[in-house]
Amino acid sequence: MVDRLCKLFDDGNSAQLTLFADNDLITFNDAVFVDQPLRYVQKGKEQKKHKSRVRIQTVDDNGYPVVNVNVTIEQNPASRLPIGCATSKLILENEKYKQWFTSSFGLTTFANEMKWYNTEPSPDIENYSVPDSMLQLMKQNKILVHGHNIFTDDPKYLPSWFSWTAKNLRDQASTPSKYIKKLKEIQSYIGKGSGMAIGLQSHFDVPNLPYMRAAIDTLALAGVPIWLTELDVPSGINQAEYLEQILKEAHSHPNVEGIILWAPWSLECYGGMCLTDRDFNNLPTGDAVDRLFCDYWSSKKLEGKTDKNGNFETSIFHGDYKPKPGRYGSFKGRSPGGKLDNGMMELRRTASAVM
Known about the structure:
By secondary structure, this protein is an alpha/beta fold. 27% of the residues lie in helices and 22% in strands. The chain starts with 18 loop residues before the first strand and ends in an 8-residue tail after the last strand.
């Protein structure tokens, strides 16, 4: 029974709306939404969530504004979005893997290298040499490392020597409303200000975007950061198309703070999701990710001229930028939502997720 009011915004399409109720969760029939109107809504959300206006002033050696001077702003590709990809220990051994990843992403999660069964294969014998080496590599390349679960409440994902006697509390029929209930129960013991976050294992088949949106809306009621931590789509003819749809929806949602693609490179891709082949040539999924990064979600290279006050103002995606004045002049001052530091402008949202 639906006992909450729901506002429906007509996009000009007179298609009939169908509501489904799942406890406190309300979703919409897929058929209601068509690609273009939905993309229009997503783009509006992306503009609000991921872009800000920035003003840069050029000055001469005496500190006076320089008018009508060319200004170029270039974005650091690795800083573009809080979207990363899982990595495996193979990155320590394969130079091509290392070059491809460090030039493509600014965020990662170690796939299994931090799991308990790898770091303590025998009782009281710990070995963190592999994840330590991976962490050092990421630090050297200024790549953020997002944490991941170190064990799962399933015997097959625990060390072989560990005796599993605790009651398995997993709920196979979990729903967003049940998730919220359990989260509030945990918060009642440890407190709301304990640095909690929601990490959603996001293994999709055929995406139901309205349900996905409504589910995240419901989880957002917890008031904690939400990450999609293992986003993948199984191999198939529509894999790349589905991946692109999911990424657009997640990226535009105001409560999703980060996304990890579950596509660690391997010599053979056994039915999972890979972005490249073994020689690091893009697969259709890799093309989809590059298309979103380069065509939809980056400011690319922006050029313009300063006005009568020596200012250049534009709207750009959050990230790290290198502004370059033409002919002569330097940059000074602060920009709304960002800063200038030794010529490097940083424009980004305040991150509430723990890296």
